[in-house]
Amino acid sequence: MTVSVKNIRSQIIIANKTYVLLYFILVIIVRPNIPEELYKQIDEKIYLDLEVHILNKRFIKAEKEGNSGFATYIENLIIQTTNKRKEVNDLLKNEGVKILDPVADDDFVEYKFYQKKLGGIAEGSMRYWKPAMKLNLKNRMSVYWK
């Protein structure tokens, strides 16, 4: 029995296509059936929480250094960011979405969430690569320091 290279290549291609197809099916099944707007709002809430945390740390540092003008500016930013976060929280609460505490490992941070629906609960999670989160936060907060 002889096996041609062409036959082996076609079997490998079919196997790879099957693997990719199975991967996409699994991703679709694992992702809960919630609107894309809610995913954006969940993402926004996560980043707003982190922004408030960073601003609070800078406020404490500015007060310790006796920089009252900068502390006042940061305090106003904290109030604005907290108001945005409150709006997003209210929207998510009205939609029945609850975001759980983050679970971090060496490279990633995972935020699990669920949405209470009429027919039950839809669970999901969002994973963020830590360096990408830092870069995204830096870009978001650069607006405050211009």
State the gist of this model.
The protein is of the alpha+beta class and 146 residues long. The protein is built from 4 helices and 4 strands; from the N terminus they run αααββββα.
Write the layout of secondary structure elements.
Blueprint: H1 5-30, H2 36-65, H3 68-94, E1 97-99, E2 103-104, E3 108-117, E4 120-129, H4 130-141
Antiparallel strand pairs: 1-3, 2-3, 3-4
List keywords for this structure.
single chain, 146 residues, alpha+beta, 4 helices, 4 strands
- The shape, in one word, is elongated
Measured distance between first and last alpha carbons: 73 Å
Tell me the series of helices and strands, N- to C-terminal.
HHHEEEEH
Number of domains: 2
By DSSP (H or I, 4+ residues per run), the number of helices equals 4
Estimate the strand proportion.
Answer: 15-25%
Mean pLDDT comes to: 83
Low-confidence stretches: 19-29
